[in-house]
Write a structure and sequence with these properties.
By secondary structure, the chain is an alpha+beta fold. Helix content is 55%, strand content 10%. Among the domains are: 101 residues, Arc Repressor Mutant, subunit A; 62 residues, no CATH class. A hairpin with a 5-residue loop joins strand 1 and strand 2.
């Protein structure tokens, strides 16, 4: 894990967003809070997008050509272009306004070696915190503490209020969006599996619903729903979830259900799942 994940977090891994100097939320609606004060007005142009990119890469030297590529993908970069300077000036104006209000600089941007470095102490970013809780959960689960693991997984899921920077279409955002989606899905699948292990079927079906809200092609979620309804003898629901799965896989991925999905349907229809209760 990169060192930047350590800032804004207690030594035991607890979330301390309320103690962070800089709080950034990228999942769902984007928001920034500096020293407890929300940034309500971003100047026109690329200032906000520039901040988003720099804060996700804070502490690293980002060369001008890399910043230009991130903000204006597909356009050829020219050393004489003023677009990046304009965006940087606007961003610094926003940060300077917040600095005046707070009496100190929560965020600074340094120019060095034909690039820029964003510096900020005690930073809390929801996307990073979500990943941290997933990793922490996996760690304690490997040590046999499934209760604490489930708590971390639930914290990870709770931070996912929507896609990473919705509405943005640049390559780096798209890549990070896919990563956050995979992170929340991993947490939800572990919660689903732990719930099944403990025969907490109501919780397992709720995790399946959340999984399918994020990705409607997760076949394991359909299999769990079919299994739970099959153990209850609810054959109509088993058939309905099988058909939904088959339709979505066919229409969205041009694929067919896995053999295990078809076996679950057959086992349910022949009463073999209800016998496991």
């Amino acid at each position: 894990m990169h060192d930047k994940y350590v800032t804004g977090r207690a030594a035991d891994g607890a979330t301390i967003a309320d103690e962070a100097t800089v709080e950034v939320r990228c999942l769902g609606d984007f928001s920034v809070t500096l020293d407890g004060r929300p940034v309500l007005k971003w100047r026109a142009g690329k200032a906000r997008h520039l901040f988003q990119y720099l804060v996700m890469n804070r502490g690293r030297l980002m060369l001008r050509e890399h910043l230009y590529e991130a903000l204006w993908p597909g356009n050829e970069w020219s050393p004489g272009s003023s677009s990046l300077k304009v965006a940087m000036h606007a961003l610094r104006q926003v940060l300077r306004t917040e600095e005046d209000r707070a009496g100190q600089a929560a965020v600074t941007i340094e120019y060095r070696d034909h690039g820029y470095i964003l510096h900020a102490d005690r930073v809390w970013v929801d996307a990073e915190e979500m990943e941290h809780h997933l990793e922490r959960g996996a760690l304690v689960e490997r040590h046999g503490d499934s209760t604490s693991a489930a708590d971390h997984y639930r914290r990870s899921v709770a931070l996912y209020r929507g896609e990473f920077l919705p509405g943005e279409t640049t390559d780096w955002v798209t890549e990070q969006r896919q990563w956050t989606r995979s992170t929340v899905l991993r947490a939800l699948h572990r919660l689903r599996e732990l719930a099944l292990h403990d025969a907490e079927h109501a919780a397992a079906t709720e995790y399946c619903r959340q999984i399918l809200d994020v990705d409607p092609y997760q076949e394991e979620a359909y299999q769990t729903l079919m299994y739970v309804h099959g153990t209850r003898g609810e054959l109509g629901s088993v058939k309905s979830w099988h058909d939904v799965c088959a339709r979505r896989l066919s229409q969205g991925l041009d694929a067919q259900p896995a053999p295990r999905t078809r076996r679950l349907l057959d086992d349910a229809l022949h009463g073999r799942l209800a016998q496991r209760m």
